[in-house]
């Protein structure tokens, strides 16, 4: 059966640079890695193929030979060597994987972040997310909230070791302390993390009766959260160490509280400013006066000049939302809505008729200014 083209396996052109090859192999290796596809023989075979392709194309001399002779360059009669050029066949694909992901073959780093913990079996706990809804008042003033959530915590019985009290750790019988097992696949030797000890090289002699050797147990946790003034939709608060507990001495993860602010029945927020609309009587708008306006921090006095029109907006300085960055507090913008009475008593109508007569509005109910502006349209 003819072997597949190395360039096609990696999904690159024949003019691909070294960096393009590495990027393509990184993507393929993650996609087909056995730890990401347990029990999938096809994925395992693809992982071997893309590793072999990268091993050849990443070497200048081997790539030149492959470009000239194809796969025949590495068969007997063309030097008698495998792709490594040393006569010993193909090397462990995990070596290439560690090389591409910046490893020196000793474990740790991104290799262990993606496919388990360190060689000592330690693993940091996962970060957690908690969605918290708050009111606009709480967002502006700040607040203290108690939240409750489930997370994995260290088992109290075994103190997070996974071993029954009095028990000890022994050398893993599967990998004999190596942390890895090797399997042969033809000319390829395939290495993977030991499934028994998860790469630690040791296992507990007798698993903890409470956590069954898992070292952690789910538990409902309560936490007091301080919300600073000025937060908004999407603001994230980080609570260090309040995520899930780590394994075998690994650090605990963090808890991220993501905030959402409820819509307010009176105020709308834009950045640090607040907007609201206040209805006023047409007599107040005409004669002027002073009114009390609600704010998120209590009431404020607002002077209404005589002749105020509907839609006029006034600014209350620093009655908006405090800035999270420590700058000046936002303002509150108050838009006037002049209410026109819909039902008049006989006396009210009589007085208004008299007002209209004295003002000359009885004969010209529409403003002269409007007609002057409208002349250009006719």
Descriptive key words:
15 strands; HSP40/DNAj peptide-binding domain; alpha+beta; Helix Hairpins; 3 domains; elongated; 10 helices; 25% helix; single chain; three-stranded mixed β-sheet; 378 residues; four-stranded mixed β-sheet
Largest sheet: 4 strands, mixed
Please state roughly what percent of the residues sit in beta strands, choosing from under 5%, 5-15%, 15-25%, 25-35%, 35-45% or over 45%: 25-35%
Q: Strand arrangement, largest sheet?
A: 10-11-15-14
The CATH architecture of the largest domain can be given as Orthogonal Bundle
Give the helix/strand class: alpha+beta
Number of domains: 3
**Count of separate DSSP helical elements:** 10
What is the ordering of alpha helices and beta strands? HHHHHHEHEEEEEEEEEEHEEEEHH
Low-confidence stretches: 76-81, 84-92, 102-116
CATH classification class of the largest domain: Mainly Alpha
* CATH homologous superfamily label of the largest domain: DnaJ domain
CATH topology of the largest domain: Helix Hairpins
The share of residues in helices is: 25-40%
Rounded mean pLDDT score: 81
What is the radius of gyration?
37 Å
Spatial separation of the terminal alpha carbons: 88 Å
Total count of strands: 15
What is the overall shape? elongated
